[in-house]
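User: Can you predict the 3D structure for this chain?
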Amino acid sequence: MHHHAYLWTGPKVRFDQEALRRPPHPEPPPPGSGPELIQRYRAAVAEFPVSELPPLETAHWLVKPRSLVRGSWAEPDGAAEWVRDRLDVYASRFAAPAQRDRDRLGGLVASARQRLAAGGDVSLGFYLERPVYLSLAVVTCEPNRARPGLPCPLR
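Assistant: Here is the predicted structure, written as structure tokens:
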């Protein structure tokens, strides 16, 4: 088991494009489906695997391009420290002052460490100013508990 980190910042309106954050359904729309449904399916097939947008399900980061991996660790402590470092970098930009509280951020890091040690994934999101959104994720790989069939992006 090991862990991969992902980070995305961008406009909240882009983050809200949920159709691009979902993998396509395994089956295409049935014959006779409306053009809007067919177009949405085609967009998901083309965009989801290459989009830098955070997927709705954290484990689906594993099917994104390997270039989006921001770090990899064999142990959860290193991955949790990456989360701590990212929170330190971005905390001053959090839109909600209460989210900047050091004790709260320390609790998030401790929780991340525990979840990763148990084989889970970590996904955190924060509104930054302007409105910009920050998504941090650490995904447990080989196996991923939620999606054990997903391959490692670095193999």
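The first strand starts at residue 2 and ends at 11. The chain is about 30% helix and 20% strand.
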